Amino acid sequence: MTTRTFERRIRLGMVGGGQGGFIGGVHRFAARLDDRYELVAGALSSNSERAAASARDLGIKEDRTYTDFADMAAREAARPDGIEAVAIVTPNHLHFGPAKAFLEAGIHVICDKPVTTTLAQAKELAEIIEKSGKLFVLTHNYTGYPMIRQMREMIAAGEIGKLRHIQAEYAQDWLTEAVETRGAKGAEWRTDPARSGAGGAIGDIGTHAFNLAAFVTGEVPDRLYADLTSFVPGRTLDDSANILLRYKSGAKGMLWASQIAVGNENALSLRVYGDKGGLEWHHEAINQLWFTPYGEPKRLITRNGAGAGHAANRVSRIPSGHPEGYLEGFANIYSEAAEAILAAREGRTPSPDVVYPGITDGIAGLAFIEAAVQSSKNSSWMQLDC
Ligand SMILES: NC(=O)c1ccc[n+]([C@@H]2O[C@H](COP(=O)([O-])OP(=O)(O)OC[C@H]3O[C@@H](n4cnc5c(N)ncnc54)[C@H](O)[C@@H]3O)[C@@H](O)[C@H]2O)c1
Q1: Is the pLDDT of residue 3 over 90?
Q2: Phi and psi (nearest 5°) for 270?
Q3: How far is ligand 1, taken at its centre, from the CA of residue 133, in Å?
Q4: What is the DSSP letter of 157?
Q5: pLDDT category, 6, cuts 50, 70, 90?
Q6: Where in the chain is the domain with CATH 3.30.360.10?
Q7: Which residues pair with 309 in a beta bridge?
Q8: Phi-psi bin for 183: left (phi > 0), alpha (psi -120 to 50), beta?
Q9: SS3 assignment, position 208
Q10: From residue 242, how far is each of 175, 234, 373, 386 by CA, in Å?
Q11: CATH 3.40.50.720 region(s) of the chain?
């Protein structure tokens, strides 16, 4: 990732991500990696003691430690040194409220996925973003990987020809048993429709696979047929999903998202086939991309190695062979966001190289979830409303 000089770090706030929270810590690493942000304020937990203790751990001053995100948005907006951007890392049902509050207070938003719990809310948020004139970044972090950028560049350049088949998979096994009934906090809200939304595995990890397929191909399917299952007794949301996809271009796809696939940790993979070649990428071999021009031997493209192009190289940090991974990919989204925020601060347009997921991706993700739930219920093909 090439860095440029800047006047001062972006003042960042955080909602969620207190002690015991998972993704908030990852966001903080990601924000620090290229040294563009400084965390100065937070409403890190709804529990006031935990919020205060978590803020102390992170060196956030007492007068910028909040227990309520609405209060934080109002008070930060009123300060001359108030935050310029906020990271929202709360469970899904607590994305819309904070995003609205900070955007309306004139603060850029970096939010985790899925963007909201309903498609209607995602669309409403799009209007709020538009009205605010502020930036909205959705952390579909896997789009930050160099080999994913490489895949995208090669497909756009026609290197595998006209797209025929897209195979996207995200398999985990941590919900194989009813851990939500045994005090696993992250599992509790993820299996509760009121806090997670209508999707279980499809919302939590299916949206990542769906987004990744759209990011590399530049296409969102217009129809799908889903078979969703809750294998674990007592669970209301899906824990495994098999989905067929159809694209307007004539391409077809399959998406498998499962949290009960024993033996899988974070097995995200993407295979894309065109009439001239194929591309294959697996999260667990993150720095490698297989490219097969039809009729020729398979070629291995590596991060920062021979064959990697501009889009991949500009988001790589270290020489080939040294592994880069999850945190660097996440940091690439933060650094892309920083480029956009700095450009906004300076009243210019960011370089066209700068790409990050936003509200359009969030809407597509919710359209995917809602169409999948409906399709599985009705045993019929459904149109995606996005
Ligand atoms: N991009 C990714 O790879 C990725 C990975 C994991 C989770 N996520 C997403 O991140 C979000 C959080 O997931 P998680 O696994 O970190 O959950 P978590 O349960 O581990 O953490 C949630 C945090 O939010 C805090 N919180 C809850 N209500 C709050 C409130 N009203 N005000 C302030 N803080 C509050 C909790 O105290 C906790 O610190 C979810 O939307 C999830 O889908 C994304």
Answers
A1: no
A2: -140, 125
A3: 26
A4: T
A5: low
A6: 145-318+362-383
A7: none
A8: left
A9: helix
A10: 17, 20, 11, 21
A11: 10-138
pLDDT at residue 35, rounded to an integer: 94
3-state secondary structure of 297: coil
Which atom number of ligand 1 is nearest to the Cα of residue 19? 39
Confidence check: pLDDT of 256 > 70? yes
Measured from the CB, is residue 94 less than 6 Å from ligand 1?
yes
The 3-state DSSP class for residue 319 equals coil
The answer to whether the CB of 199 is under 6 A from ligand 1 is no
Q: Report the SS3 class of residue 353.
A: coil
The pLDDT of residue 72: 98
CA distances from 283 to 21, 154, 309 (A): 23, 18, 19
Predicted confidence band of residue 255 (pLDDT cuts 50, 70, 90): very high
Question: What mean pLDDT do residues 372-385 have?
Answer: 97
Q: 381: which DSSP letter?
A: -
Q: Is the CB of 110 under 6 A from ligand 1?
A: no
For ligand 1, mutation pick of 90, 111, 141 (most atoms within 8 Å of CB): 90
Quote the mean pLDDT of the chain.
96
CATH fold of 10-138, please? Rossmann fold (3.40.50)
Q: Which CATH superfamily groups domain 145-318+362-383?
A: Dihydrodipicolinate Reductase; domain 2 (3.30.360.10)
Give residue 112 CA to ligand 1 midpoint distance, Å: 8
Residue 3 CA, ligand 1 centroid: distance in Å: 29
Asked if pLDDT for residue 320 goes beyond 60, the answer is yes
Average pLDDT over residues 195-224: 98
Instruction: State residue 129's pLDDT score.
Output: 98
Does the CB atom of residue 211 touch ligand 1 within 6 A? no
Percent share of the chain, pLDDT over 70: 98
Kindly state if the Cβ of 15 falls inside 6 Å of ligand 1: yes
Distance from the alpha carbon of residue 274 to the mean position of ligand 1, in angstroms: 38
**pTM > 0.90:** yes
Is 200 within 8 Å of 194 (Cβ atoms)?
no
Dihedral sign (CA 63, 67, 72, 75): negative
